[in-house]
Write a structure and sequence with these properties.
Blueprint lengths: L1 E2 L3 E3 L8 E2 L6 E4 L6 E3 L10 E4 L13 E3 L4 E7 L2 E6 L19 E5 L7 E7 L4 E8 L9 E2 L4 E4 L6 E6 L5 E6 L9 E5 L2 E8 L3 H13 L12 E6 L2
Antiparallel strand pairs: 1-2, 2-3, 4-5, 6-9, 7-8, 8-11, 9-10, 11-12, 13-14, 14-15, 15-16, 17-18, 18-19
C-alpha cells in the first residue's frame, strides 16, 4: 500500500491504482516501480501555466491516517475537490529569502465546480481496494490525524467547527462530538491509568490548516468561519 498525494495503491490492485480524491495529474503508475507518469500539461514551468487537481496540499497532507487490523480498514483524513493553477517566474537567489520560482500572484487556489464538500474522512478496505464509507464535511477542510482503537471507535478533530469527534469505525457514524476552544490538529493518543482508558488530544489551529482556510475564504468569501488558534490539551475518560 502506498500514497502518492492523491491515489491509493493496494496489493489487490498490483497492476492498477485508484484516486481517493479528484485528480488529473497522474496518467498511470508503473506496476514495477510505483512511479507515476505525470501529464505534461499539468506540469508548470517558467512562463508556463498549468492547472491541476488536487492542490499543492494534495489529497492528504501531513495528518496521519489510521489502520485497523481488526477491520482491515484504512482511515484517511482527506481534502477533496481542491485545485490549483501555477505559472513559474524567473528568479534570482537571495540568501534568506524564499526561492520557489513562483510569485504569489501566479498561484491560484480554487474549489472544483459543483463541489459539495471539502473535508472527507474515508474508510478503505485494503483487501479489495474499495471505499467502504466516507463522512464528508461540507464547509470545512480536514486537518485531523485519526486514531483507531481496538474497540471499533475512531477519534479525530481537524475541522473548523472545533469539534473533537468519535466515529463508529464500521460505518462512519458520529458517536460523540465535543467542541473545544480551537480546531483540533493534534494527534489523539490513548492510554490507561488505574484500569481506566483515556483519550488525550491537543486543540490548536494554525500553519497549514489556517493557510488553507484563508485560501478557501478567498475562493468562497466568508463561507468558512474564522478559527481561534487556541492551544490546550483535552483529556476524555471512556466508559
Amino acid at each position: 500500500m502506498g500514497f502518492i498525494n492523491c491515489v491509493i495503491v493496494t496489493p489487490a490492485e498490483a497492476q492498477g491504482w485508484k484516486p481517493f480524491v479528484k485528480q488529473n495529474v497522474f496518467l498511470r503508475l508503473d506496476p514495477e516501480t510505483g512511479r507515476p507518469d505525470v501529464d505534461p500539461a499539468r506540469q508548470p514551468g517558467t512562463g508556463k501555466k498549468a492547472e491541476f487537481c488536487p492542490s499543492l496540499w494534495g489529497g492528504k497532507d501531513w495528518p496521519p491516517p489510521a489502520y485497523s487490523p481488526k477491520a482491515h480498514l484504512l482511515y484517511i483524513p482527506a481534502n477533496e475537490n481542491l485545485c490549483q493553477a501555477l505559472s513559474g517566474d524567473p528568479v534570482t537567489y537571495t540568501p534568506g529569502q524564499r526561492f520557489t520560482g513562483i510569485a504569489p500572484a501566479n498561484s491560484i487556489f480554487s474549489i472544483a465546480p459543483g463541489a459539495d464538500h471539502i473535508g472527507e474522512l474515508q474508510a478503505w478496505n485494503l483487501d479489495t481496494g474499495q471505499k467502504v464509507w466516507s463522512h464528508p464535511f461540507a464547509n470545512s477542510p480536514l486537518w485531523g490525524p485519526v486514531l483507531a482503537t481496538a474497540g471499533g471507535v475512531l477519534f479525530m478533530g481537524g475541522t473548523n467547527h472545533r469539534y473533537f469527534r468519535a466515529f463508529d469505525a464500521s460505518n462512519g457514524k458520529i458517536l460523540l462530538e465535543f467542541r473545544t476552544g480551537s480546531g483540533v490538529n493534534g494527534v489523539p493518543v490513548s492510554f490507561q491509568l488505574d484500569g481506566k482508558q483515556y483519550i488525550a488530544v491537543q486543540s490548536g489551529w494554525g500553519v497549514d490548516a489556517a493557510r488553507m482556510q484563508a485560501r478557501l475564504n478567498v475562493a468562497r468569501p466568508w463561507e468558512f468561519p474564522d478559527v481561534p488558534q487556541g492551544g490546550a490539551v483535552w483529556v476524555f475518560a471512556l466508559d
